[in-house]
Amino acid sequence: MSTWRRVHVNLRKAHGLFPVSSRRVTQPNTWKYGHLTLCKSLSTSRPLRDDFFKDLEVQLAAMRQKALDALPGSDWSPLKMDRSLPPERADVVIVGGGVIGWSIAYWIKQKERLRGGVRVVVVEKDPTYSQASTVLSAGGIRQQFSLPENICLSIASAQFMKNINEHLHVLNEDPVDLQFNHSGYLFLANEEVAHIMEENYKTQRSFGAHVSLLSATQLKEKFPWINTDGVALASYGLENEGWFDPWTLLQAFKRKALSLGAEQSIGEVTDFKYTSNIATTAEGDQVVQRRIKSVKVQVNNSLEYQPIECAIVVNAAGALSGKLAATLGILLPVEPRKRYIYVLNCPDGPGLDTPFLIDYSGVWFRREGLGGNYIAGTSPEEALEPDTSDLEVDHQFFEEKVWPHLASRVPALEKLKVTSAWAGFYDYNTFDQNAVIGLHPSINNMFFATGFSGHGLQHSPAVGRAMAELIMEGNFTSIDLSNLGFRRIIQKEPMLERNIV
Amino acid sequence: MSAPFMSLYRCCQRSALLVVSRRSLSSVSPPSSVSPPSSVSPPSSVSPPSSVSPPPLHTRFLLYLTQCFYDVEMLQSWTFLQRWKRIQKRNTYYGYTQKNYGSDIAAAYYILSLKGGLRFVGQSEWFIADRRGKFNWAFLDHKDTPLEEVNMNYTDINYRGLDNLEEQKSLRTLSLRGCPEVNDWFLARLHMFEDSLEELDISHCPRITTGGLAALRNLKGLKRLDVSSLPGISSPGVVIILLEEMLPKCDVTANGYDHTLREES
Ligand SMILES: Cc1cc2nc3c(=O)[nH]c(=O)nc-3n(C[C@H](O)[C@H](O)[C@H](O)COP(=O)(O)OP(=O)(O)OC[C@H]3O[C@@H](n4cnc5c(N)ncnc54)[C@H](O)[C@@H]3O)c2cc1C
């Protein structure tokens, strides 16, 4: 009855081309504008009857929606709901809203057959990303790895970034501009490690990476500002290498995933609820198989928490993923390791052709913008790893470990000034410094995408796709990453990069 | 599937008609931009023309439509995708031609199909496609002669199309003025002509930014470079000085930038 009355009232209103009630309720403010400009001219001679049926249709649609809401599987409840709380149910819960988490969310939504077919929730505890590695990274992408998996991931990710607007463009929004700098990576090797560089070069070429080897004289010719003392060989990326803005990539993934219907919820995952099964193997061993039933999300700044019932959990919590796995009693060898980045200013330093230079001493530097600014850093020795309780920067470290190598390699940087610095956490895999991607062998609905140890940002597009394939299709279809699975950790077979640093 | 599309189609038709009629009206009597088409009124009775309305009417209208109908949104993203697919298709790898006629003919054929122009090594004659895409098939006579000059001004060439030019080791001049699809990734791929390329014109390309210009360092033989009127580079003064520093043997032309800015930097 009330429906009928509403229809009746609507009839008397002035109508435009689009009846008032046919707009989506979520965008009330856009209406005014359109109303003023459009309706006057469009409302000339439309029969009222037409509007009547249209409105009836709308009301029926609203009724259908209400009925649908009340069906099991939806969030609807007769009590008043707090929208800031996470949903009660989801198909996939991704823990960690860094670049990896959002990339996975995007690819899952992109692969779903039916719009809204898979409910994906990304749980992030810190929406400002004050400590996330993604936004604190150096933003580099290179193909100069030794493991075929890493090389292929880089090539696929570069391919993705080339067409980023075909993937991540959102209708009526600005196109994505990654601010990609095509300056390449330059690795320098001394006599001892030159043979490794040569082997790596062969592998990289065989997978289609555009890399070239330079002798010391060629290097001097190409980059006259480099001091080539001690350099036996250099390898230099010609294409698809350089650096970009990590924040833009993260936001682009997030924006697209949200527009495809992924959900974000703010809170920290503190616990899991699971069921266990004891299975017996052919040899008679007993193995415990667990299955996660729900994820407990602690809402920020409150005692409230909400369990999310889910079918699949993805651990993409970056540096904290080891801690998250520990709540399930799993030993995941990923821990935070603090790395410093120093911002340098040197007006007469090298110019536009400065590549991302990585010296065999481990020191790296690259250009930052155009005003004679650079950023530099290095990894400390294993025994001298700094404390990871905060993100304080150790300036002594620059004086002792970075500057001497940098100044001798690039004499023009001798008069540099450190203008600022920051620190970030590597999601460091202490076992073999490579990613852990795939299902846990004994928890049959927990996936991992973590442990990237300093190259997660550049691999995020391809890793997201691989994870979505694994989750949605059951196996890897584009790049086979089964060697990077969890099994290698249990079987103690490290997948080490043969690197020169 | 077809039912929503039909209604959508009709809706679009009607709105297009309205937009058109309104346009013609406003061209007759300039200030009347808001009056309904049925009542052609004298300019005095019409509300004042809006001076602050940056987006053109049809964009606003489309935006409005997408906010109301999923169908329009879908159609718009569909056309977006189709446009991309069309450009990708035009830039495919001419593998079949390459197998049967060799890489030089394939490259020439690719260039002419995109309405570009070319000159073979040792020839003075240019092969140029006309505005309607017609060209002289006599280029087939120059089998196994590499290209020396290529003119792709105002064409749809993109980085994918460069696959067809990969074998051109004697290419000396490449002109890409005003190409909408030439971007930084394209420039980064030009290293394949590093030994031969002497002249490069990338002026008026809307998608080139500083990050791509840095990739030109690989073209060591470059003698002339035209980077005029690139809207994508933010501080042209500094960038051009850095570019000249990076390519000391090259004569860099950069017109069309705000001159005062250049003098300042
Ligand atoms: C100094 C530095 C330089 C780097 N340079 C490069 C580079 O040049 N190239 C490159 O490719 N990579 C680089 N990296 C590595 C790269 O940044 C990381 O590998 C990558 O960002 C990992 O992404 P992620 O999404 O897994 O992690 P993160 O970005 O750290 O995201 C994880 C998120 O999970 C959230 N989270 C954690 N635990 C929970 C929980 N229990 N509940 C809810 N949310 C949780 C965190 O708040 C965080 O936002 C660098 C890293 C550092 C530190």
TrEMBL record, chain A:
Gene3D superfamilies hit by this protein: D-Amino Acid Oxidase, subunit A, domain 2 (3.30.9.10), FAD/NAD(P)-binding domain (3.50.50.60)
Membrane disposition: Single-pass membrane protein
The keyword Lipoprotein is assigned to this record: no
Required co-factors: FAD
Compartment(s): Mitochondrion inner membrane
InterPro entries documented for this protein: FAD-dep_OxRdtase (IPR006076), FAD/NAD-bd_sf (IPR036188)
Keywords, ordered alphabetically: Electron transport, FAD, Flavoprotein, Membrane, Mitochondrion, Mitochondrion inner membrane, Oxidoreductase, Respiratory chain, Transmembrane, Transmembrane helix, Transport
One BP annotation, GO: mitochondrial respiratory chain complex I assembly
Listed GO MF terms: oxidoreductase activity
Pfam family, one: DAO
Location of the FAD dependent oxidoreductase domain: 91-470
Primary subcellular site in the record, as a coarse category: mitochondrion
A single GO cellular-component term on record: mitochondrial inner membrane
Entries under PANTHER family matching the protein: FAD-DEPENDENT OXIDOREDUCTASE DOMAIN-CONTAINING PROTEIN 1, SARCOSINE DEHYDROGENASE-RELATED
Described function: Required for the assembly of the mitochondrial membrane respiratory chain NADH dehydrogenase (Complex I). Involved in mid-late stages of complex I assembly.
Protein's name in the database: FAD-dependent oxidoreductase domain-containing protein 1
UniProt organism field: Champsocephalus gunnari (Mackerel icefish)
Lineage: Eukaryota, Metazoa, Chordata, Craniata, Vertebrata
UniProtKB/TrEMBL annotation, chain B:
Family stated for the protein in its record: Belongs to the ATP synthase subunit s family.
Function: Required for the assembly of the mitochondrial NADH:ubiquinone oxidoreductase complex (complex I). Involved in the assembly of the distal region of complex I.
One of the Pfam families matching this protein, by short name: LRR_6
Assembly and oligomerization: Interacts with incompletely assembled mitochondrial NADH:ubiquinone oxidoreductase complex (complex I).
Bias type Low complexity, positions: 27-50
Region (Disordered): 27-53
InterPro entries: Leu-rich_rpt, LRR_dom_sf
Lineage: Eukaryota, Metazoa, Chordata, Craniata, Vertebrata
Species, as recorded: Champsocephalus gunnari
Protein name stated in the entry: Distal membrane-arm assembly complex protein 2
